[in-house]
Amino acid sequence: TSLPPLLPQPCTIQYLVTHYLDISCVPRRSFFELLAYFSTNELEREKLQEFSSAQGQEELYSYCNRPRRTTLEALWDFPHTTCAIPADYLLDLIPRIRPRAFSIASSMLAHPERMQILVAVVQYKTRLSKPRRGLCSTWLASLNPEQGDVRVPLWVKKGGMKFPADPATPVIMIGPGTGVAPFRAAIQERVAQGRRGNFLFFGCRYKSKDFYCQTEWEELVTKSFLTLFTAFSRDQEEKVYVQHRIRENGRLVWELLSRGNAHVYLAGNAKEMPAAVAEALQSVLQQEGGLSPSEAEEHLAALERSQRFQSETWS
Predict the structure, then answer these.
(1) Residue 111 lies in a domain
(2) By CB atoms within 10 Å of each CB, which of 86, 111, 261, 264 scores lowest?
(3) Beta strand 171-174 with 263-269: parallel, antiparallel or unpaired?
(4) How many CB atoms lie within 10 A of CB 1?
(5) pTM of the predicted structure, to 2 decimals
(6) How far apart are CA 71 and CA 24, in angstroms?
């Protein structure tokens, strides 16, 4: 079969699964459809056909998505079928490793010779005994430059967030966890330009473990370049998140928006946080601005349309 030009020609299967095919990803429905086509074992074929049918999607979700079962583990579970897969179809069966996107967490003005990123190493457990590990983050964490030069293929893509040109315009940044990365770059840039009016809402689980850039933030607070609000969700019995801090500081947020023409920026996990933050901002517009629920919703939408409210979230 024809191989992508970046691969060795010819290419061994070992090289494919080591460097190119994402054998650690959770397989999709199409994976089981193709396996069923090649299966020579009646019992395995029946199960594969069930997983690839419309009626079997709940069963497939329980088998694959809930325990985050990998493609390699699924192949182990269907040994007779796996042995029957023609090598020519490996590129159709298993997707290639996709590039990972990370926000640049440093400014060229502050670090002209360096580009920094903030990466949390993904590691968790599911119903399966084997711990799940993030492919890219685990690999990056394993690198040791002291043992020789390390080559990490990368490219730089222009960011989507646009910060105000007027140096007097305040900016409200909401970045829980690694979502704070683009704001570290923005704050470094603005501080290097002598701009104040930087307001950061940062949240994480534990102050002692996850307070990224703590020393840097505290130094900027001391120099009056930054106003910092923190939420450490697990450091007390009742969980506290950034949306709670927004509500608590509603008067300030409203003053910055209404009188200061402030711009609001949000970055982080796309699961539940963005909706909770939007709800908190609407609550501030109602409580401090006297808007009705529908007016508050429209006002936030208007801020988004005028790019005074911008978000960069990922799953």
Answers:
(1) no
(2) 86
(3) parallel
(4) 9
(5) 0.87
(6) 6
pLDDT value of position 314: 86
CATH of the domain at 293: 3.40.50.80
End position of a domain, from candidates 42, 62, 93: 93
DSSP string, 178-196: GGGHHHHHHHHHHHHTT--
Task: Write out pLDDT tens, residues 166-182.
Answer: 989 999 999 999 999 99
Q: Are residues 69 and 203 in the same domain?
A: no
Task: Count structural domains, the chain.
Answer: 2
Q: Residues 84, 89, 91, CA angle at the centre, nearest 5°?
A: 135
Instruction: Give me the amino acid identity at 87.
Output: A
78, 72 Cβ separation under 8 angstroms: no
DSSP state of 52: T
Residue 300: per-residue pLDDT: 97
Amino acid code (one letter) for 191 = V
Whether 109 maps to a domain, the answer reads: no
